[in-house]
Design goal:
The protein is of the alpha/beta class and 340 residues long. It is built from ten helices and 15 strands. The longest helix is centred in the C-terminal third of the chain and has 20 residues, at 306-325. Bound molecules: nicotinamide-adenine-dinucleotide.
Length: 340
C-alpha cells in the first residue's frame, strides 16, 4: 500500500511541484489537502484526486483519518514548527519543507515531539536527490580534485513582491540566508561531509523591500583541516546559482546546482584539461517523497532528518550572530549531540 500524504499549504511550491510530483510517485499517494481556503482545497483536491479536505482549524482531526499516514508541510517558515508538532501529536509522519523552522529551539522541539509520538521527521532537502550534485560529491570522494581547500557557493534570486511572506520577519525568520543561502550552507556540508567549526557573516539591505529581512549575505565558514567556504546569497540580484570547489589537484564547478529545472553543468578541471558533463535535474521532489515513504515502510531513519535541519539552523544563527556582533563565532553543536 502506498503511503498516504496530506499536503499542508497550497501555495506555489505545493501547486507547482509537490502535488504534480505525488502523481508520479510509486510508494506514495496524495490522500488529503489542507488549506486556509476550503473552496481552494476542494478544487485542488478534486483536480488531484484527494478526497479528504481539511483547513487549519480541522487539521488535528487527521488523527482519525486512516488514509493519511504522513504530511508534507509547505507553509511559511514560521508555521513549520506548529504544524510539525500538531501532525506528530496526530500520529502522522512529517516531511517538512526547508528551512526546518525559525530557530534551533523550534527545531529541537520538532525533533522531540516526533520522537515522543513515534513518527519520522524528514526535511525537504530535495537537492539531496539531484544527480548533478551526486556527481560532484562522487568526484570529491574519488579524489578527482585532490584535497578540497575552498568552496564558493552562491544562490540569489530577486524577491521583492510587497505581499510576499518571505519579506516579513515574523513569518520568514530571516531573508535570503534562511530561504536560499541555506542551499549553499547545506551544499558545503554535503560536499565536504563535514560541519563548519566557525562562521563569520556580513549582512546588508539596500532597498525598502528588505526593511525587515536580510537582502544580501556574505558568510565565511571554516571547516576542519582549514577548508574555507564562502556563501553568497541575495534577494536583490538576478539569479545566480552554483558553486566551485577548489582542490590541490583541480576544481569542480557546478552551474545551476540548486534550482529544480535547469540542467546541471558539472565541470572538472584536472591539470590543463576541463571536461563538462550535463545532468538532468531529475524528478527531485518525487524522489524525495518516495524516499521518505520507503523510510516509513521499512522503519528507517531518513538521511535528511531533523538533526540535519537543526545543524543548518545552528549555522544560520551563528552567521546572523556574527553579522550582528561583528566578530567570528564558533558554531556550537551541543544541542545536536544532546538530541542525537
Ligand atoms: P507560498 O507563499 O507560495 O505559499 C505559502 C502557503 O501558505 C500559501 O498557500 C498560503 O496561503 C499559506 N499560508 C498560510 N498562512 C499564511 C500566512 N500567515 N501568510 C502567508 N501564507 C500563509 O510559499 P512557497 O514558495 O510555496 O513556500 C512554502 C514553503 O516551501 C517555504 O517554507 C519554502 O521555504 C518552501 N519551499 C521549498 C522549495 C524547495 O525547493 N524545497 C521551493 C519553494 C519553497
Amino acid at each position: 500500500m502506498p503511503v498516504g500524504y496530506a499536503v499542508v499549504g497550497l501555495g506555489n511550491f505545493a501547486l507547482d511541484r509537490i502535488l504534480p510530483a505525488l502523481m508520479r510517485t510509486r510508494h506514495s499517494k496524495l490522500t488529503a489537502v489542507v488549506s486556509g481556503d476550503l473552496n481552494k482545497a476542494r478544487r485542488i483536491g478534486a483536480k488531484y484526486g484527494a478526497s479528504r479536505i481539511y483547513n487549519y482549524d480541522s487539521f488535528d482531526s487527521i488523527k482519525e483519518d486512516p488514509d493519511v499516514d504522513a504530511v508534507h508541510i509547505a507553509l511559511p517558515n514560521s508555521m513549520h514548527w506548529e504544524y510539525t508538532v500538531r501532525a506528530a501529536k496526530a500520529g502522522k509522519h512529517v516531511l517538512c519543507e526547508k528551512p526546518m523552522a525559525n530557530s534551533p529551539a523550534e527545531c529541537l522541539n520538532m525533533i522531540e515531539e516526533c520522537r515522543k509520538n513515534n513518527v519520522k521527521l524528514m526535511i525537504g532537502y530535495r537537492v539531496h536527490f539531484d544527480p548533478g550534485n551526486h556527481e560532484a560529491i562522487r568526484l570529491i570522494e574519488d579524489g578527482a580534485i585532490g584535497y578540497p581547500k575552498f568552496i564558493m557557493a552562491a544562490f540569489s534570486q530577486r524577491t521583492t513582491e510587497p505581499d510576499q511572506w518571505r519579506l516579513n520577519f515574523n513569518l520568514s525568520g530571516g531573508g535570503a540566508l534562511m530561504d536560499i543561502g541555506i542551499y549553499c550552507i547545506n551544499a558545503c556540508r554535503y560536499l565536504l561531509d563535514n560541519e563548519p567549526e566557525s562562521a563569520m557573516g556580513m549582512v546588508s539591505s539596500t532597498e525598502p523591500a528588505f526593511a525587515e529581512v536580510d537582502e544580501n549575505v556574505l558568510a565565511l565558514l571554516q571547516f576542519p583541516e582549514g577548508i574555507l567556504a564562502s556563501v553568497n546569497c541575495s534577494y536583490g540580484t538576478r539569479r545566480v546559482d552554483g558553486y566551485v570547489v577548489d582542490g590541490s589537484e583541480g576544481w569542480i564547478e557546478v552551474r545551476s546546482a540548486f534550482d529544480y529545472w535547469t540542467p546541471r553543468e558539472v565541470s572538472l578541471r584536472r591539470g590543463d584539461s576541463i571536461t563538462t558533463r550535463k545532468f538532468d535535474p531529475g524528478d527531485q521532489v518525487a524522489a524525495e517523497i518516495d524516499y521518505f515513504s520507503e523510510c516509513i515502510e521499512a522503519n528507517i531513519e531518513p538521511a535528511p532528518n531533523g538533526l540535519e535541519g537543526l545543524k543548518d539552523m545552528i549555522i544560520i544563527e551563528s552567521i546572523y550572530r556574527s553579522a550582528r556582533d561583528g566578530c567570528r563565532v564558533p558554531v556550537n553543536y551541543q544541542s545536536v549531540a544532546s538530541a542525537a
